């Protein structure tokens, strides 16, 4: 290993040799033989049977038959992007990981976002946890931070993972519902495995329906270890914080988007990168000294528990920027292989039993998905540093090993490849003292299932609490078994009686009269209402009809665009819409090819004509946006599209003489939602 810093373009350059553009080229077989005919198979006579010797037909058909690889059992629906990571300051005090030492070094990364439950073709705005997996191509090898957008998980031990997934997937007798937890088997699992309580609270919250992958936090979930050059270890958890803030959809909006644009999240990410609005996330770490391991009212190794930021502060250590879209979704996004066991010197594991199980299952999964043990040789998975070992052969082997020996220890090759000492960069596991009997058991410190679920509830704003109640009501309203519904009510009475009673009434269950966890503390860091709010990259639909006032509209659009807000003209037909002075604006969408749910806000302009279709369609857009608590701005004839009840509502900005409409409208857009609006 050279020890040289990783060039930010090194991964791009490595991938470049595998990219090809077939435009203007002759057709060949996979062996490079030019093909003279691609319309007809080789036959014995023009009406005779196809001949087995037609190697081009056989190769073409065989490849087609095998184009699809098995989709992931979970996280099948995913999208990804390339980028880079830079640490803000050296973390030498805590870890010897080289990519966390030098602020001048840019480490290439590849990030895959995903839903958990649905199949590859499912919608993206479903209520679900989201995967947030990052592959760092470091000079010491690949490091994978494989996390979710929720900091905890349903279960404490990986042996229960197959049970969890079997319960939440479509039910086997009818293969329904797709990409949803709203059915009997999942909630039966929840009620009978009460360690799920905390994660379920997050899943019923707004965190489970993010506005954008660019506005979504990421968490490593597990406790890992940082180890420095002196061998001192500390427990660590990782968090990604989006610079645009953490924001969500509302449930009705999410359901409608699933029908209007099932690719909503990937389209949003793709277009942002193509537009140069590169998504940015800061990496934060929470660090616990080993001597403080047992100084908390929860077990720090329990994956159903988070580390409250108010108790264990989050230290921001670097920033990741996603700046390049993939060139081929299959070759990169589908074939990328993540594994929490892909670590570099300075990062080690804890005894979290869920993490310990994942260290086995991820490799096992890649073997079936990617056809054998050589998945690391696929371009997207190859490290940027060289790799040398005695592993040989197997499906899809790409390395051509020319050495005579493939074993350790040897004399023919002077005992190479040879292990590297820690001083030479060799990975050394942290030497933790371990002792005890072999048992199938779980520590008593893992038995509290409700305290942090109550902490989460206590930390929510009133609108967020309302949404959680509505989510429980919807999900359990889809459960047919009355006993399961009642069991869930009784279970969540242990979290908060008022919560359980509220959704019990909506699902025909008996409300609890007692219960509760007794937990009164809260964590303000958990509420999205306390997150950063920015107008940049928000999308505003501009509703315009002919004979509008061009100067005024262009000034407003200019001010919106100057704040990084994206605008799109919506009208009754494509082409151009003409202002009263003859100015033309290009129409981006018609009312039939777009929808109010696809925008963060609406700007109603209208026009002086008597276009009844425009007025009807535009009014529908405005009413939908109002119902979803979005900012609405109105000038000129657009004010006539507002109902009387809207005019004085929060987040509805009307142009008045002498007022700065654009400034007030931008402020309303920045707020994201206006929850104090009265929506009937």
UniProtKB/TrEMBL annotation:
<dbReference type="GO" id="GO:0020037">
    <property type="term" value="F:heme binding"/>
</dbReference>
<comment type="function">
    <text>Decomposes hydrogen peroxide into water and oxygen; serves to protect cells from the toxic effects of hydrogen peroxide.</text>
</comment>
<feature type="region of interest" description="Disordered">
    <location>
        <begin position="1"/>
        <end position="31"/>
    </location>
</feature>
<feature type="binding site">
    <location>
        <position position="112"/>
    </location>
    <ligand>
        <name>heme</name>
    </ligand>
</feature>
<feature type="compositionally biased region" description="Basic and acidic residues">
    <location>
        <begin position="10"/>
        <end position="25"/>
    </location>
</feature>
<dbReference type="InterPro" id="IPR002226">
    <property type="entry name" value="Catalase_haem_BS"/>
</dbReference>
<protein>
    <recommendedName>
        <fullName>Catalase</fullName>
        <ecNumber>1.11.1.6</ecNumber>
    </recommendedName>
</protein>
<feature type="binding site">
    <location>
        <position position="369"/>
    </location>
    <ligand>
        <name>heme</name>
    </ligand>
</feature>
<dbReference type="InterPro" id="IPR024708">
    <property type="entry name" value="Catalase_AS"/>
</dbReference>
<dbReference type="Pfam" id="PF06628">
    <property type="entry name" value="Catalase-rel"/>
</dbReference>
<dbReference type="InterPro" id="IPR024712">
    <property type="entry name" value="Catalase_clade2"/>
</dbReference>
<keyword id="KW-0560">Oxidoreductase</keyword>
<keyword id="KW-0408">Iron</keyword>
<dbReference type="GO" id="GO:0042744">
    <property type="term" value="P:hydrogen peroxide catabolic process"/>
</dbReference>
<dbReference type="InterPro" id="IPR029062">
    <property type="entry name" value="Class_I_gatase-like"/>
</dbReference>
<feature type="cross-link" description="3'-histidyl-3-tyrosine (His-Tyr)">
    <location>
        <begin position="339"/>
        <end position="362"/>
    </location>
</feature>
<feature type="active site">
    <location>
        <position position="75"/>
    </location>
</feature>
<dbReference type="InterPro" id="IPR043156">
    <property type="entry name" value="Catalase_clade2_helical"/>
</dbReference>
<dbReference type="Pfam" id="PF00199">
    <property type="entry name" value="Catalase"/>
</dbReference>
<feature type="compositionally biased region" description="Polar residues">
    <location>
        <begin position="519"/>
        <end position="529"/>
    </location>
</feature>
<dbReference type="InterPro" id="IPR011614">
    <property type="entry name" value="Catalase_core"/>
</dbReference>
<feature type="binding site">
    <location>
        <position position="358"/>
    </location>
    <ligand>
        <name>heme</name>
    </ligand>
</feature>
<comment type="similarity">
    <text>Belongs to the catalase family. HPII subfamily.</text>
</comment>
<keyword id="KW-0349">Heme</keyword>
<feature type="region of interest" description="Disordered">
    <location>
        <begin position="512"/>
        <end position="532"/>
    </location>
</feature>
<dbReference type="InterPro" id="IPR041399">
    <property type="entry name" value="Catalase_large_C"/>
</dbReference>
<dbReference type="GO" id="GO:0005829">
    <property type="term" value="C:cytosol"/>
</dbReference>
<feature type="binding site">
    <location>
        <position position="161"/>
    </location>
    <ligand>
        <name>heme</name>
    </ligand>
</feature>
<dbReference type="InterPro" id="IPR020835">
    <property type="entry name" value="Catalase_sf"/>
</dbReference>
<feature type="domain" description="Catalase core">
    <location>
        <begin position="28"/>
        <end position="416"/>
    </location>
</feature>
<feature type="active site">
    <location>
        <position position="148"/>
    </location>
</feature>
<keyword id="KW-0479">Metal-binding</keyword>
<keyword id="KW-0575">Peroxidase</keyword>
<dbReference type="InterPro" id="IPR010582">
    <property type="entry name" value="Catalase_immune_responsive"/>
</dbReference>
<dbReference type="GO" id="GO:0006979">
    <property type="term" value="P:response to oxidative stress"/>
</dbReference>
<keyword id="KW-0376">Hydrogen peroxide</keyword>
<dbReference type="Pfam" id="PF18011">
    <property type="entry name" value="Catalase_C"/>
</dbReference>
<dbReference type="GO" id="GO:0004096">
    <property type="term" value="F:catalase activity"/>
</dbReference>
<dbReference type="GO" id="GO:0046872">
    <property type="term" value="F:metal ion binding"/>
</dbReference>
<feature type="binding site" description="axial binding residue">
    <location>
        <position position="362"/>
    </location>
    <ligand>
        <name>heme</name>
    </ligand>
</feature>
<dbReference type="InterPro" id="IPR018028">
    <property type="entry name" value="Catalase"/>
</dbReference>
<feature type="binding site">
    <location>
        <position position="72"/>
    </location>
    <ligand>
        <name>heme</name>
    </ligand>
</feature>
């Amino acid at each position: 290993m050279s020890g040289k810093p990783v060039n930010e373009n090194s991964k791009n350059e490595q991938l470049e040799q595998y990219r090809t553009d077939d435009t203007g080229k002759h057709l060949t077989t996979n062996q490079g033989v030019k093909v003279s005919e691609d319309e007809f198979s080789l036959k014995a006579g023009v009406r005779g049977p196809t001949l087995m010797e037609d190697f081009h037909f056989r190769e073409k058909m065989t490849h087609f038959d095998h184009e699809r690889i098995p989709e992931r059992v979970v996280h099948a629906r995913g999208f990804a992007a390339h980028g880079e990571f830079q640490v803000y300051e050296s973390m030498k005090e805590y870890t010897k990981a080289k990519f966390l030492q030098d602020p001048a070094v840019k480490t290439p990364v590849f990030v895959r976002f995903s839903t958990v439950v649905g199949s590859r073709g499912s919608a993206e705005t479903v209520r679900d946890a989201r995967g947030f997996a990052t592959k760092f191509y470091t000079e010491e090898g690949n490091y994978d931070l494989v996390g979710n957008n929720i900091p905890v998980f349903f279960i404490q031990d990986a042996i229960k993972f197959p049970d969890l997934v079997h319960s939440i997937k479509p039910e086997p007798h009818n293969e329904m519902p797709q990409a949803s937890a709203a059915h009997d088997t999942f909630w039966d699992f929840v009620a009978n495995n009460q360690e799920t309580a905390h994660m379920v609270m997050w899943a019923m919250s707004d965190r489970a329906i993010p506005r954008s992958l660019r506005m979504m936090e990421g968490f490593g979930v597990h406790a890992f270890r940082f180890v420095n050059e002196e061998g001192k270890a500390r427990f660590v958890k990782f968090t990604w914080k989006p610079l645009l803030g953490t924001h969500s959809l509302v449930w009705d909006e999410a359901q409608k988007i699933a029908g209007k644009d099932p690719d909503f999240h990937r389209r949003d990410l793709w277009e942002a990168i193509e537009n140069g609005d590169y998504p940015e996330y800061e990496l934060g770490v929470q660090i616990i000294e080993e001597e403080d391991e047992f100084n908390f009212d929860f077990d720090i190794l329990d994956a159903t528990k988070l580390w409250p930021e108010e108790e264990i502060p989050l230290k921001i250590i670097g920033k990741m920027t996603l700046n390049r879209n993939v060139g081929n979704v299959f070759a990169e996004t589908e074939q990328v292989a993540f594994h929490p066991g892909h670590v570099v010197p300075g990062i080690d594991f804890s005894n979290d039993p869920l993490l310990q199980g994942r260290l086995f299952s991820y490799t096992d999964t890649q073997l079936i998905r990617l056809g054998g043990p050589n998945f690391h040789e696929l371009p997207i998975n190859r490290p940027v540093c060289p790799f040398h070992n005695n592993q040989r052969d197997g499906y899809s082997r790409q390395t051509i090993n020319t050495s005579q020996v493939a074993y350790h220890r040897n004399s023919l090759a002077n005992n190479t490849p040879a292990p590297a000492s820690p001083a030479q960069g060799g990975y050394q596991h942290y030497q933790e003292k371990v002792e005890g009997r072999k048992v199938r058991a779980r520590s008593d410190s893992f038995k509290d299932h409700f305290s942090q679920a109550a902490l989460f509830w206590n930390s929510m704003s009133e609108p967020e609490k309302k949404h959680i109640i509505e989510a429980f009501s919807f999900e359990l309203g889809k459960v047919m078994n009355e006993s399961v519904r009642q069991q869930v009510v009784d279970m969540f009475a242990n979290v908060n009686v008022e919560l359980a009673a509220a959704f019990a009434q909506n699902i025909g269950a008996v409300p609890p009269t007692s219960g509760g966890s007794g937990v009164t503390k809260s964590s303000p860091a958990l509420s999205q209402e306390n997150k950063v709010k920015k107008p940049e990259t928000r999308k505003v639909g501009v509703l315009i009809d002919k004979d509008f006032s061009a100067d005024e509209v262009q000034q407003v659009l200019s001010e919106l665009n100057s704040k990084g807000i994206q605008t799109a003209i919506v009208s009754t037909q494509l082409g151009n819409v003409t202002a009263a002075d003859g100015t033309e604006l290009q129409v981006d969408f018609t009312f039939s090819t777009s929808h109010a749910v696809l925008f963060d806000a609406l700007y109603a302009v209208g026009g002086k004509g008597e276009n009844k279709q425009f007025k009807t369609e535009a009014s529908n857009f405005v009413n939908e946006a109002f119902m979803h608590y979005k900012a609405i701005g109105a000038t000129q004839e657009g004010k006539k599209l507002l109902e009387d009840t809207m005019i004085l509502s929060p987040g509805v900005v009307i142009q008045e003489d002498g007022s700065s409409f654009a400034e007030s409208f931008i402020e309303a857009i920045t707020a994201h939602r206006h929850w104090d609006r009265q929506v009937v």
